[in-house]
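BUG: 3D viewer hangs when loading the predicted structure for this chain

Environment: internal workstation, default settings.
Expected: structure renders.
Actual: progress bar stalls at 90%.

Input used:
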Amino acid sequence: MKNNSYLVKLTALSLVFIVLTIVARKFEPIASYVDKYNEFTVLYMTLLAIVSSYFHKKAISTGDPHDMYNFNMLASTVRLLSGGAYMFLYFFIVKEKLGIFILNFFILYFSYTIFEIKTLFSKLQTQSKKD
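Structure tokens produced before the viewer hung:
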């Protein structure tokens, strides 16, 4: 059930970002700061959060601090490399408004990272209370 709770919160966060994107496009001064492919970036960040959650869940289930460290480093590596690949593809396929894309990408990147860290800490606190 807790994993479903995470997915529900993640879906809610993603929907909030999509709604904010749609609303921001309606207002002219703000619309110029919203990437026209922002929904794809939100989808990418959501999928990346699900993959990271899998690695974090696996790390917590092992109970071994070394395995936990390795899985967390793996999740961070996947996040960084796939983020670089996503940006690389955008730069070579879309090639327009790169500054706006980078701004939107990093706002979403850090928002989802903060969400994952907050969720991971709550999982770790729950796990330590069980022990």
